[in-house]
Design goal:
76 residues, alpha+beta, 2 domains, two-stranded antiparallel ribbon, 2 helices, DUF131, transmembrane, transmembrane helix, membrane
């Protein structure tokens, strides 16, 4: 029962992600000039690899540190 809830939550998050990308693309195509910034994190065990530009990279770095701490705390 508990596993089924986690699976459904994961599927819902994936669909919400697709919806947000679609809405973001639609809004940016209707607007004027836009500036693109973004960032991401690849976690290999507790080691984060952060990439991106501008504010997106800063937010990605903060999230990477939080994920790293959660991983270390959860492993002990």
């Amino acid at each position: 029962m508990k596993g089924e809830i986690i699976i459904l939550a994961g599927i819902a998050l994936i669909f919400m992600g697709f919806l947000l990308v679609f809405i973001g693309t639609l809004v940016s195509s209707l607007g004027g000039e836009t500036e693109v910034e973004g960032g991401g994190v690849i976690m290999i065990g507790p080691v984060p690899i952060v990439f991106g530009t501008g504010r997106g990279a800063t937010i990605a770095t903060i999230l990477a540190v939080v994920l790293m701490v959660l991983w270390i705390v959860g492993a002990s």
